[in-house]
Amino acid sequence: MESKIVLANRVQQIKPSPTLAVNAKAKALKASGADILNFSVGEPDFDTPPHVCDAGKQAIDEGFTRYTAVPGIIELREAIANRMAQDRGWKYEPDQIQVCCGGKHGLYNMAQALFNPGDEVLVPTPYWVSYPAIIQLSGATPVFVPLAEEDDFDLKADILAQYATAKTKGIIINSPSNPTGSIFSAQALESIGKMALERGWIVISDDIYDTITYGEGTLAHILDVNPALKEQTLVLNGVSKSFAMTGWRIGYTAGPQHIISAMNKIQSQSTSNPSSVAQKAALAAVSGPQDFPVRMKEAFVPRLDFIMNALREIPDVSCVLPKGAFYVFPNLSAYYGRSFNGKKIEDSVALADYLLDEALLATVPGAAFGADKFIRFSFATSMDIIKEGMKRLASALARLQ
Ligand SMILES: *Cc1c(COP(=O)(O)O)cnc(C)c1O
């Protein structure tokens, strides 16, 4: 029976995360006994390190199970400030930091605190799936700035200028990027910084993958371009990826005090503090030894090498070499227009569906990231699965004609 209850406009305009949809279908197939290889997952395939788990257990045993300060316990905010100072040389006071329920929640609080209907927010595309929805939920409009495969998905100043208007309120950058694995060059960051300063934009830097980079050199950061940018930049991060803590739900934002204060107001009237127990675990992660993220990254290197080599051997596939995160984002569009059993594959959704049905590979279609020519494969999975998966991919693509 059709319900009489009409849902709010805001929920009707946003799409459910397509990554979750693929995951659900893959899980259902798996439950029915199919030998699904899962390349769709956006989290490390590592357990949270023991010293971090112990800190969480100890918090429970010691009765640290009540409300905390809304923006997080002071020890954790101090530890985050110290880590940023030590690793990056940035100076933040604890009242310039908000701890929240995961990196995604930090973005949500930011959008609610900053954006009005009519505001435009620049989103370099391919983008992380949640940016458009989070912007739309605030009433603002995401404006997609295309990044080209030929440019290694780096941002070009002249392209950026084409999408900036008088309504532009800010820009979200994500380097290293999910889904492309690309990082923005110092030059790209300089042009963003220059426009942001001239036009008074807020820069939102989603740094969630900053511990997972490959190759030589340090990761360029927008805050290092011009010290004045600190007054109009929010740095978002968390322990989900760096310490394999996706289920603990701890993220944080550092930025100008008046913006953090506004975000605290939003948080105080919605979630209140993030889990007290998870905060203690995050404190152990942020203030303790930093070898875990390094070891995790080292484990990703041979997988990245293998998957890139395998992709290079498949005809008509191109793939930008990722410089960070744990995804490859090959361009498979040469296969669009080809058919299997008389059924034509027209786009990334159809191809991902074909790979799931015919090769038992769970992936995420590029359409989910605003880039229909591509499909995202996560290599946060075992080498055995990657080897078998690439074999299946090559043979499934070869069967299309
Ligand atoms: C995983 C991820 C986040 C944060 O995830 P949480 O689980 O909410 O901490 C933020 N941005 C990007 C691009 C991500 O991939």
Indicate the topology.
Layout: H1 9-13, H2 18-31, E1 37-38, H3 50-61, H4 74-88, E2 97-100, H5 103-114, E3 120-125, H6 130-137, E4 141-146, H7 157-163, E5 168-174, H8 186-199, E6 202-206, E7 233-238, E8 251-254, H9 257-268, H10 276-287, H11 291-312, E9 327-328, E10 339-340, E11 343-344, H12 348-359, E12 361-362, E13 364-365, E14 375-378, H13 383-398
Parallel strand pairs: 1-12, 3-4, 3-5, 5-6, 6-7
Antiparallel strand pairs: 2-8, 7-8, 9-14, 10-11, 13-14
Helix pairs in contact: 3-10, 4-10, 5-6, 5-9, 11-13, 12-13
Quick gist of this model?
This protein is an alpha/beta fold. The protein has helices spanning 9-13, 18-31, 50-61, 74-88, 103-114, 130-137, 157-163, 186-199, 257-268, 276-287, 291-312, 348-359, 383-398, and strands at residues 37-38, 97-100, 120-125, 141-146, 168-174, 202-206, 233-238, 251-254, 327-328, 339-340, 343-344, 361-362, 364-365, 375-378. Strand 3 (120-125), helix 6 (130-137) and strand 4 (141-146) form a beta-alpha-beta unit.
Report the biggest beta sheet as strand number plus sense, adding barrel if it closes.
Answer: 7 strands, mixed
| Residues in helices, as a percent range | 40-55%
CATH architecture tag of the largest domain: 3-Layer(aba) Sandwich
- Average the pLDDT over all residues and give the rounded result: 95
Helix/strand order: HHEHHEHEHEHEHEEEHHHEEEHEEEH
Number of domains: 2
Tertiary shape? globular
Strand order across the biggest sheet?
Answer: 2-8-7-6-5-3-4
**Proportion in β-strands:** 5-15%
Poorly predicted regions: none
CATH superfamily of the largest domain: Type I PLP-dependent aspartate aminotransferase-like (Major domain)
CATH class of the largest domain: Alpha Beta
Please give the radius of gyration in angstroms. 21 Å
- Count of DSSP H/I helices: 13
